[in-house]
Every structure is written in C-alpha cells, then in structure tokens.
Specification:
Aminopeptidase, 4 helices, globular
C-alpha cells in the first residue's frame, strides 16, 4: 500500500469525489448531492495517495447523539488493499473525539462485500429499510441498517 494522508474535503474536491462515486456505485451521488452535503455542513473526509490523488472518502451527518454515515467509497482500482479499514479507523477515531454514542449506516442488501467489512469492523444489523435504494430497471432494493456503538 502506498503512503496516504487523511484530509477534510470541500467544494474544490467534488470532481474527484464524483470520479470515484461513478466508478463504484450503480446509482451514484450527483454533484448536487455532494454540494447539498457540504452546504448542510456534513463532514467529508478522504484519503489521498502520495500523488495527492483521492483514493477513498466518507460523508458524515450528525443527528443528535449519533453520526450517520451517508456515503463511503474506495476507488475501484484501490479496493482490496486495506483502504476501507484505514478509512473506517480514521472515521471511528474522529467520531470518538465528538459527543456521539454510535455510528449508523445503511447498505444495499446486495453489497455483500461492504456488509462483511462493516460486520468485521463491529457494526451489527439493527433493521431493514424496504425498497430504500433505487435499483436497475426502475426497481428498488432494500437496505440493511447497521449500527456500531462507541
């Protein structure tokens, strides 16, 4: 694995966020979604390689005493190299410095790889959201709701 740096991201990084988003998701966030998150003061952090290219990121939204993980992605060419674990470590460390009791997320039921990563990290399933995500052919897909207590 190459050297990396952890950094806060902003409006100037949206093009790089979109590059990764469009590589890895069938229904990616739009430029407007990222702008809305930044405007709403959601926190976006990323990992950059030694060439300062963005390789992974997450988006966090505080909700009372809980952090909601809205988006999490690792560049397609960097997957399987431990960046998800590094990013989860950074996220967990950052959130533990704040007055939050847990991290909540949703993940597509079909995204088995992500589910396994989250489970290994300590997230547990607490429920399902029926027809939560858009899917192929104008259909919808359920989400698994997971939480990790801090």
């Amino acid at each position: 694995m190459n050297a990396y740096s952890f950094c806060k991201l902003g409006y100037a990084d949206v093009d790089q966020l979109l590059q990764i988003e469009e590589q890895v998701y069938s229904h990616p966030w739009t430029r407007g979604n990222f702008h809305d998150s930044l405007y709403s003061a959601h926190e976006i952090f990323g990992l950059r390689d030694n060439k300062q290219e963005l390789v992974a990121y997450f988006v966090l939204m505080p909700v009372v005493d809980e952090i909601h993980l809205l988006n999490f992605a690792v560049s397609a060419c960097m997957q399987g190299q431990g960046y998800a674990r590094i990013l989860l470590d950074k996220m967990s460390s950052y959130v533990r410095e704040k007055p939050f009791s847990s991290i909540l997320l949703e993940v597509r039921v079909s995204n088995q790889r992500a589910i396994e990563i989250y489970q290994r990290y300590g997230f547990t399933e607490i429920g399902r959201r029926k027809l939560y995500y858009p899917a192929a052919n104008n259909s919808r897909e359920d989400a698994i709701v997971m939480r990790m207590d801090l």
